[in-house]
Design a protein that fits this description.
With 344 residues, the chain is mostly helical. The protein has one domain: Orthogonal Bundle (Hypothetical protein af1432), CATH 1.10.3210.10. It has 17 helices and no strands. The longest helix has 24 residues, at 175-198. The termini are far apart.
């Protein structure tokens, strides 16, 4: 290969080694707003960097994945889940000769709009707002509107599309987006199993035997099996999909987790607490919009108030949501002061 440097070298590597079905960096449909290109990085590499340095990405470390405010150091947060998805998506992209930079950027941005208190928070906001609420749509809103004090990150079409369409019901425009979608399911089912066992809600021997026989008894075995199945069924093709047997086993494991972990009397009790907290704050700021932080108050001049309230509440980490709730509703001798809240 001739001596090339910076992004020109990346372009050349993609031409030589990427699948015919990969999205090459040169072929991006571009950004919503034109801007001067970077001399060293491709547009997808720039998107990845913009996401990593965003405020929304930093907040993921203090947002619930499944278990609210876990005491142990090794439970997943929304941040570690995002890293898990990125790693699995890159592995899929690598074995199928897809664009790893694009897959990584989508994976790192896919949950930026997630609420505090995990999917419980998402369900609460969906029930409160007349506009509804879905974390994938909010993630796109974060990168398009909310970051950079309302300027957004101005990401490429392909990354934005992958973020919006990462849910199972979505239809990503690129195979890299499809890789992230399936990586998301692989990650959360397997790592939620680990967390549930660590929390004492499950034992390894409780997992359904038929699915264990197909996928494996450990997280490592199951992930390797599923990525191997994707490779066997997708290499050289315009698709990213598991074999029927492995896909069916994954769906059965997901259903098992809903029954035994996600939707249980214990989890629903915690969800009810989250509902009371978020509902109370939603009603309070609906009736006292002047108490919103200045940025969100300015947004309310351009967007419906119900949208802005979802923007504010979904941006909160678990701890910050508790602090704001206490500041509003708990006597101040027992709560943080407004100055403390501003300093968080």
């Amino acid at each position: 290969m001739e001596q090339l440097f910076g992004k020109e070298r990346t372009y050349r590597i993609e031409e030589l080694f990427c699948s015919a079905y990969a999205c090459r960096s040169r072929e991006s449909k571009g950004r919503q707003r034109e801007e001067p290109p970077c001399a060293m990085r491709t547009d997808f590499q720039r998107d990845r960097d913009r996401i990593i340095y965003s405020k929304a990405f930093l907040r993921l470390k203090n947002k619930t994945q499944v278990f609210f405010s876990p005491e142990g150091d090794h439970f997943r947060t929304r941040m570690t889940h995002t890293i898990d998805v990125s790693q699995i998506a890159r592995s899929i992209a690598r074995c199928l000769a897809l664009n790893e930079d694009l897959a990584e950027a989508i994976a790192l941005g896919h949950d930026l709009g997630h609420t505090p208190f995990g999917h419980a928070g998402e369900r609460v906001l969906a029930s409160l707002s007349p506009r509804g609420f879905a974390h994938n749509e909010q993630s796109l809103r974060v990168v398009d509107v909310l970051e950079k004090e309302g300027r957004g990150l101005n990401l490429t079409f392909e990354v934005r599309d992958g973020i919006l369409n990462h849910k199972k019901s979505g239809k990503p425009a690129t195979l890299e987006g499809k890789a992230v979608s399936i990586a998301d399911r692989i990650a959360y089912v397997n790592h939620d199993i680990e967390d549930a066992i660590r929390a004492g809600l499950l034992r390894a021997e409780d997992l359904p035997r038929a699915e264990v026989r197909v996928l494996g008894a450990t997280t490592r075995e199951r992930i390797n099996t599923m990525i191997g199945s994707i490779y066997e069924n997708s290499v050289g093709k315009d698709c990213v999909a598991m074999g029927e047997k492995e896909a069916h086993a994954l769906e059965n494991l997901r259903s098992f987790m809903f029954e035994k972990v996600y939707i249980t009397p214990l989890s629903m009790k915690e969800e009810e607490r989250a509902k009371r907290m978020l509902s109370s704050m939603y009603d309070y700021f609906w009736n006292n919009r002047e108490r919103l932080p200045a940025f969100y108050l300015s947004l309310a001049e351009q967007w419906p108030l119900e949208q802005v309230l979802c923007d504010y509440l979904s941006s909160m980490t678990d701890k910050f949501a508790v602090a704001v709730f206490n500041n509003i509703f708990i006597p101040h001798s027992w709560a943080l002061t407004e100055k403390d809240i501003e300093d968080i």
